[in-house]
């Protein structure tokens, strides 16, 4: 009897440990980690990371006076130097290369030129106060112009934004609160939009961008971005007035690449980045004149590795390395630890991650650096019951540390009491083991006794049984079938 009792306690202890481990995720903590213990306050580096700046106030080559438009290709940066009424061209490091334009109304002259866009062959400039669009070759030679002041089709009222695809030119006709569409020669094709706050209406449309499927418009006065199909039909919108993530304080410029929408805020003094559906991803920038700070940023350009911002009132261009945070941070709550997992940043292929830094705190937005690891997981055993913890993770790359990922919370699971009871009614015994049920059908004489065991910190209440077994039937979850077969065989041998 003693041997049977010991065997039953041993087997059920294994059963409980396996069940608890599976339910709580404690098996997760057995994974080896590569961790460097560090400490300190959360990093305040912007994401993306500041790389360089060029330009200052003046009229000389490379100097600027309220630059309001910027574009980039594989070899050069093109800048609309608005108050100097000219276009300047720089190499990708910001070194001055060339310039063209002067003040006036003639071909190749400007009156407050605004945004600029390029394709493989031409430069398109919004000559705002002349109410027209001018087109140049990539060397700055005048090609053609179209538009005049007015409200009829093909006319403009202080246009500010422009976008180009393989077949059309799209112009944000700001004063007329509409978008006009032209072919690449400047012939009017269509229009959409009107004054108002409803879907498809505008209050000062400014920036505009186009991709293979949609047109994106900065509806500046309504503090939102509107999305249309290529025919001008309303598709969606995002944003509202405010300073929170995803809200806008006078948005102005935007650019779109294969995966993201980048928006500048004139009064918000920051850049916000969204996915193509308008979901907020991250932000960077603050008011000021320091590196990574802005004063009335009006336009933005991107390529696969960098982001360029026309920092208008600071009379300069700032260049940032794209450096996105880790994604999908998730907590796996156990009995004595909290496991964290995440996935690499969106730009991890072009901007490899050298380490991840995990931040932890007991209040929202009050985190302290916990560890640095090269893994995509970490098990935090430094936790206690009845306390909520908050976590975030950053990616460290050759260009710096990203901003934090999504912030999550985790709290230890409440103590789990696993109770095994055996109810004797005649010759039938029913054992209930936490979430699984074990049924033993026994014929023969039955003697019962009750004891309480501590198993891995859990309370196991057992009503143990001494029987002469003639038949045992054990339906059980497949993962534990082998254990119970051994138990049944041993009981037969002892009492047979």
Report on this model:
The protein is mostly beta strands and 496 residues long. It folds into 3 domains: 2-22 and 417-495, no CATH class; 31-46 and 325-411, Immunoglobulin-like (Sandwich); 49-321, TolB, C-terminal domain (Neuraminidase, 6 Propeller). 8% of the residues lie in helices and 46% in strands. The protein is built from 2 helices and 38 strands. The protein has helices at residues 2-24, 481-495, and strands at residues 35-37, 49-54, 67-72, 76-81, 86-91, 96-100, 113-118, 122-127, 132-137, 142-146, 161-164, 168-173, 178-183, 188-192, 205-210, 214-219, 224-229, 234-238, 251-256, 260-265, 270-275, 280-284, 297-302, 306-311, 316-321, 327-333, 338-343, 353-363, 366-373, 377-380, 388-397, 400-401, 408-411, 420-425, 428-433, 436-441, 446-455, 458-467. Strands 1, 28, 29, 31, 32 and 33 form a 6-stranded antiparallel beta sheet that branches. The chain has a 4-stranded antiparallel beta sheet with strand order 2-25-24-23, with no helix packed on it. It has a 4-stranded antiparallel beta sheet with strand order 3-4-5-6, with no helix packed on it. The radius of gyration is 34 Å and the shape is elongated.
């Amino acid at each position: 009897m003693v041997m049977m009792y010991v065997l039953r306690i041993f087997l059920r202890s294994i059963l409980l440990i396996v069940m608890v481990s599976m339910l709580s995720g404690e098996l997760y903590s057995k994974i080896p980690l590569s961790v460097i213990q560090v400490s300190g306050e959360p990093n305040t580096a912007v994401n993306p990371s500041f790389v360089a700046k060029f330009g200052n106030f003046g009229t000389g080559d490379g100097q600027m006076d309220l630059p309001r438009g910027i574009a980039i290709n594989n070899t050069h940066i093109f800048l609309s130097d608005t108050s100097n009424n000219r276009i300047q061209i720089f190499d990708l490091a910001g070194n001055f290369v060339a310039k063209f334009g002067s003040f006036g109304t003639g071909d190749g002259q400007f009156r407050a030129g605004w945004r600029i866009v390029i394709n493989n062959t031409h430069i398109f400039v919004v000559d705002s106060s002349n109410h027209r669009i001018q087109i140049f070759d990539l060397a700055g030679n005048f090609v053609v112009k179209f538009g005049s002041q007015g409200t009829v089709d093909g006319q403009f009222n202080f246009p500010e934004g422009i976008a180009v695809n393989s077949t059309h030119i799209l112009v944000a006709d700001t004063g007329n609160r509409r978008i006009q569409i032209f072919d690449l020669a400047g012939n009017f094709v269509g229009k959409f939009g009107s004054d108002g706050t409803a879907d498809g209406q505008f209050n000062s449309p400014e920036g505009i961008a186009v991709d293979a499927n949609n047109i994106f418009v900065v509806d500046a006065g309504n503090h939102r971005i509107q999305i249309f199909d290529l025919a001008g039909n309303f598709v969606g919108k995002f944003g509202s007035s405010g300073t929170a993530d995803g809200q806008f304080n006078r948005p102005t410029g935007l650019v779109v690449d294969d995966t993201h929408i980048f928006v500048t805020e004139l009064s918000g003094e920051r850049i916000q980045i969204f996915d193509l559906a308008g979901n907020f991803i991250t932000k960077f920038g603050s008011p000021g004149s320091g590196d990574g700070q802005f004063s009335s940023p009006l336009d933005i350009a991107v390529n696969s590795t960098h982001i360029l911002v026309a920092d208008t009132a600071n009379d300069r261009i700032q260049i940032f390395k794209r450096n996105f945070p880790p994604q999908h941070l998730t907590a796996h709550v156990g009995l004595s630890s909290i496991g964290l997992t995440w996935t690499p940043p969106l730009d991890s292929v072009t901007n490899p991650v050298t380490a991840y830094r995990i931040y932890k705190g007991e209040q929202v937005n009050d985190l302290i650096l916990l560890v640095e690891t090269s893994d995509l997981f970490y098990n935090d055993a430094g936790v206690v019951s009845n306390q909520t913890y908050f976590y975030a993770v950053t990616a460290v790359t050759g260009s710096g540390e990203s901003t934090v990922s999504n912030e999550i919370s985790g709290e230890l699971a409440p103590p789990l009491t696993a109770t095994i009871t055996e109810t004797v009614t005649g010759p039938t015994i029913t054992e209930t083991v936490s979430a699984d049920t074990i049924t033993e059908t026994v014929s023969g004489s039955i003697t019962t006794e009750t004891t309480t065991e501590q198993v891995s910190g859990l309370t196991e209440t057992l009503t143990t049984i001494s029987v002469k077994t003639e038949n045992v039937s054990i339906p059980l979850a497949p993962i534990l079938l082998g254990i119970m077969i051994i138990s049944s065989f041993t009981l037969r041998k002892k009492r047979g």
